[in-house]
UniProtKB/TrEMBL annotation:
Residues 156-320 form the Lactate/malate dehydrogenase C-terminal domain. Substrate binds at R92, R98, N131, R162. It is an enzyme of class 1 (oxidoreductase). The active site is at H187. Residues 6-145 form the Lactate/malate dehydrogenase N-terminal domain. This is Malate dehydrogenase. Catalyzes the reversible oxidation of malate to oxaloacetate. Keywords: NAD, Oxidoreductase, Tricarboxylic acid cycle. Its EC number is 1.1.1.37. It catalyses: (S)-malate + NAD(+) = oxaloacetate + NADH + H(+).
Amino acid sequence: TRTPVNVTVTGAAGQIGYALLFRIASGHLLGQDVPVKLRLLEIPQGVKAAEGTAMELDDCAFPLLQGIDIFDDPNKGFEGANIGLLVGARPRGPGMERGDLLAANGGIFKPQGKAINDHAADDVKVLVVGNPANTNALIAQAAAPDVPAERFTAMTRLDHNRALSQLSQKTGVPVSEIKKLTIWGNHSATQYPDIFHATVAGKNAAEVVNDEKWLAEDFIPTVAKRGAAIIDARGASSAASAANAAIDHIYSWVNGTPEGDWVSMGIPSDGSYGVPEGLISSFPVTTKDGKYEIVQGLDINEFSRARIDASVKELEEERAAVRELGLI
Ligand code: NAI
């Protein structure tokens, strides 16, 4: 029998946590043959609700779930963690400026990065979901100098999945036949969903769509502003779809991408495609044996270049702001 994988989830008592934990425990994060131990990290006020969720997890009698522990101390929560899902974050409150938001999140992600550095397993893989995800990942990474930088990633898979679904609806082709779509840049309204290299039932997606106005005025803003549209409709932010994307992100990273396709991940840039080194920006990646690689050699047209650059500029501004705050 295999040794269980330790999965630490922060913000476990939140709405994404509630949608996420049951799918981890039922084997969707890593695979149906991989036992897991859950380590739930909350703030003290969240512990009781996390205990309630743990009771429900017990009541599912999941065969792969080999234990649940609950913590309010990151040093304990990340002990032995093989996978860290950093979901809990400080939301933007009324009248809060970007600097305040970044500072408040620095107070969460810096100590968590340090706890990962000091206590996680050597093979730890980290996904930051909590917003602003890319820059929170940068903060955690900077606090973990002993962990290889590439282990810190940010989630743009929800954006990727949203784009797949929109393109499927436009073309009438099922998502299973859409490949090589890319989200570039920041997980924010400046993100750029790129269909110029995507294929729809084997044909170039941009040519199948053949409608630049739809691309610029419908597709891109619909994907980029989907989070706000969900809040409008549901009265609460995306939770199950965000949890699903977190599952997809880790599953792809650990188990590999299929031949002839790729996924989008927010990862530290190596300078590819003119994205300054070290920024945690979304790229097209393939994965194999638990490692990812940026897809190289894609031709970036003028339409794409301007949009990638705008999103990357925003990431540079966020990096400058957290530098100024002494968070990295
Ligand atoms: P929520 O407010 O329902 O839950 C957040 C939980 O985190 C709360 O239980 C809170 O007690 C906990 N928490 C706060 N600080 C913590 C800390 N220092 N350590 C451990 N736990 C802590 O929020 P929800 O809906 O679950 O969303 C979580 C985050 O995910 C938000 O930042 C949201 O903006 C982000 N998000 C990101 C998406 C993406 O695509 N990257 C998509 C959707 C949401």
